[in-house]
TrEMBL record:
Its biological purpose: Catalyzes the reduction of dTDP-6-deoxy-L-lyxo-4-hexulose to yield dTDP-L-rhamnose.
Enzyme Commission numbers on file: 1.1.1.133
GO CC terms in record: cytosol
Top-level taxon in the UniProt lineage: Bacteria
Organism lineage: Bacteria, Bacillati, Actinomycetota, Actinomycetes, Micrococcales
Organism annotation: Xylanimonas ulmi
Designated name of the protein: dTDP-4-dehydrorhamnose reductase
The entry's keywords: NADP, Oxidoreductase
SUPFAM superfamilies: NAD(P)-binding Rossmann-fold domains
Domain RmlD-like substrate binding residues, every copy: 17-289
Length: 293
């Protein structure tokens, strides 16, 4: 388990706005900031259209910290609808960052491992060149650059393989399928770091509370596993006997290419004295009951 208990022991002040508050991460982000003492409001796209610059400016006024959890996350659909994904992931991020800058707020932009090509063999450092191989990755990379250029007071927090209680995700899908089938086939040639939304929200709280300098940070659990290995951990936690067989990514022929290696390093966190999230397997044990409930 990581050294930062959940909820965080740090104390926040000021007003926070969480955009995309009804999403899987957004729900836990609102809860974490509120538990730490911040005054928190959460909005979704029905209440704040981030693709509208004027609406973004009006929406962020009066807040000290703006956390952008809103995103187009339909990876395969983005291949055919890149302009629509770009409007949310890049233009929307830019609008929020500019609005936050104009009103004196810090912007926290959630990004992704998909900004990297995923051909590495060592954890990606924070300043590694971005080389996205999918439309979704391109739009998120553009969002990162837009935020950096638009607001000097920014935190770009990349994450990967997110799961939580508040939305559809890999563990929930695997548990459902494991209850229906005797054998599951899950890819074993993609590596990453399963990350609980509760832990990511806690990390963001700790980064802001620490007064972390503007920059890019990696908000993933420690360690590494394949999707196949994670599926086996889900079966164990759910008490299911389904056998998990390996299969290659090529067998699934997804429209959008996935990074084969999505392991992110945590040097920037350590440099500012903020502990990274703990090992994925230990954090999954802590999360499983609530996620699979």
């Amino acid at each position: 388990m990581n050294t930062s208990a959940t909820p965080s022991s740090v104390t926040l002040s000021g007003r926070w706005l969480v955009v995309g508050a009804h999403g899987m991460l957004g729900q836990d982000m609102v809860a974490a900031a509120r538990a730490a003492g911040a005054e928190v409001d959460g909005v979704d796209r029905q209440h704040l259209d981030i693709t509208d610059a004027a609406a973004a400016l009006a929406g962020v006024r009066g807040y000290d910290v703006v956390v952008n959890c809103a995103a187009w996350t339909a990876v395969d659909a983005a291949e055919d609808q890149e302009a629509a994904a770009f409007a949310v992931n890049a233009v929307g991020a830019q609008n929020l960052a500019r609005a936050a800058a104009a009103t004196g707020a810090r912007i926290v932009q959630i990004s992704t491992d998909y900004v990297f090509e995923g051909h590495g063999s060592e954890p990606y450092v924070e300043d590694a060149p971005m080389a996205p191989v999918s439309a979704y990755g391109r739009t998120k990379a553009a969002g990162e650059w837009a935020v950096r250029a638009s607001n000097p007071d920014h935190l770009v927090v990349r994450t990967a393989w997110l799961y939580g209680a508040g939305g559809p995700n890999f563990p929930k899908t695997m548990a459902r399928l494991g209850a229906e089938r005797d054998v599951l086939t899950v890819v074993d040639d993609q590596q990453g770091q399963p990350t609980w939304t509760v832990d990511l929200a806690d990390l963001i709280v700790r980064l802001v509370a620490a007064g972390a300098p503007s920059g890019t940070y990696h908000g993933t659990a420690s360690g590494v596993v394949t999707w196949n290995g994670f599926a086996q951990a889900v079966m164990a936690a759910a008490g299911l006997g389904a056998r998990v067989e390996p299969v290659s990514s090529a067998a699934f022929a997804a429209k959008a290419p996935r990074p084969a290696y999505s392991v992110l390093g945590h040097d920037a966190l350590r440099a500012v004295g903020v502990a990274p999230i703990g090992d994925w397997a230990e954090r999954w044990k802590a999360a499983a009951a609530s996620v699979l409930a």
